[in-house]
Amino acid sequence: MATKELRTLRVRARAMAVVATLAAASLLAACGGGTTPSSVTTSSGGGGVTPDDHPKGTLNILVSSAPGSDAGFKAVNQAFQAKYPDVKIEFSSIPNENYPAARASRLSAGNIDVGLAGPQALPSYVPASNEGDDARLARAGGFVDLTGMSFMKNFTPSVLDVIKFDGKQYTVPTGLSYYTGVFYNKAIFTKYGLAIPTTWAEFVKLCETLKSNGVTPLGIGGKDSWPAGLNMLAAVQGLYPTTQDKAGLAEGLWKQTLKLTDTKPVAVLERTKAMFDYAQQNFAGFSYASIPSGFINGKFAMTADGTWDETTIASAAGADFSFGYFPIPTSDNAQDNAYLGGKVELTLAVPSNSKNQGAALAYLQFFSDPTNYQTFLKLAGFAPSQPNITASPFLTSIQKYTTTFTPAWDTIWVANSKAGPKASFPFNYPGIAPLGSGTAAQAAEQAQADWAAGN
User: Fold this and answer.
1) Are residues 295 and 423 in the same domain?
2) Per-residue pLDDT tens for 125-174?
3) Less Cβ crowding at N or C end of the chain, within 10 Å?
4) What's the 3-state SS for the chain?
């Protein structure tokens, strides 16, 4: 078995051990065998706790890393400690690929007061064995129930509906991100008289024009594998533009009324392959972190990325560099390409075995205050998940693509734990050269074989 697969199994086994541990702790507390931290008082909140008025002690915060959100959290942390000097914040930002293992280990040790969580209910057609660890944790009492907390009223109700689990709120949304588009260099577009493309044919023509003038159309970081998946998500977004389209695709694959080798699913990989072909040479050896500087220095005209990276690009480039953002138009129909796919960003939760729940809830209350939240957003680059918050000029510039929120494919798809690794997404973009060695059709055949093996 591959090392990556073994690591995944170990992380999942550790997470399941955490579920069992927290479930037992929750049961003991319910039977009177547990104790409530002295800093916590009862309230009308669903979890029976409330933020401390005068928090103190150590507050352990664990999040996954990104330059923008890290800067936003650090600004909020500094302001929180200035207001509550008796609190010492221990802030840890972990690379995405290492976060699940780090969180599982620290949850088991009761060493997280504020962390990330995202419990999601399974569609009826997905077997219960595929339920995520966070859903199991929430159901076992592993997270403090935030339902009824006054600070939750600061957030947009429709956003809270998206992250609700079993009718309860366990998480605080830090914002929204969109990631089925490309950043583009306005100076290069102006130099060659290029307009924003609205169909796949126009996008191909644009890329060919750039190539004919010696300009690399796309910058892709393939060394980390996943960032290249943003191109795949863009292909799904255009070919399955609505929430209903994506949900129908997911259900059809699970019920086996659709195959990954059918014409339209193969088209997803074909268009992903085309984007790979317009990228810089040997992009599989480029890290994701190296792409913004290459984009700023004009090594390529566009880069597929999430809106979260706008603050990184802007801060590194300076005022003289002008760039914009538009949906990658992977459909032949312009209307299908009218909106960006997105997600509710990092969602914060308080584990039920937190040693400082009162301070943790005080932190969430502080974070949720519109003034502090605006500070976070300015640095993080997320779109607001609260009403009446002024969006940044960049986000304002792409509002026509975000007036209708459409969830990206990865927020709808539920992976099958019994299927093979080539059907994880389930579109097998890592199987396409140069990340892999195959064509789009061959990658689709591999994915279908792995998917069929798990059903």
Assistant:
1) yes
2) 999 999 999 999 999 999 999 999 999 999 999 999 999 999 999 999 99
3) N
4) CCHHHHHHHHHHHHHHHHHHHHHHHHHHHHCCCCCCCCCCCCCCCCCCCCCCCCCCEEEEEEEECCHHHHHHHHHHHHHHHHHCCCEEEEEEEECHHHHHHHHHHHHHCCCCCEEECCCCCCCCCCCHHHCCHHHHHHHCCCECCCCCCHHHHHCCHHHHHHHCECCECCCEECCEEECCEEEEEHHHHHHCCCCCCCCHHHHHHHHHHHHHCCCCCEECCCCCCHHHHHHHHHHHHHHCCCHHHHHHHHHHHHCCCCCCCCHHHHHHHHHHHHHHHCECCCHHHCCHHHHHHHHHCCCCCEEEECHHHHHHHHHHHCCCCCEEEEECCCCCCHHHHCCCEEEECCEEECECCCCCHHHHHHHHHHHHCHHHHHHHHHHHCCECCCCCCCCCHHHHHCHHHCCCCEECHHHCCCCCCCCCHHHCCCCCHHHECCCCCECHHHHHHHHHHHHHHCC
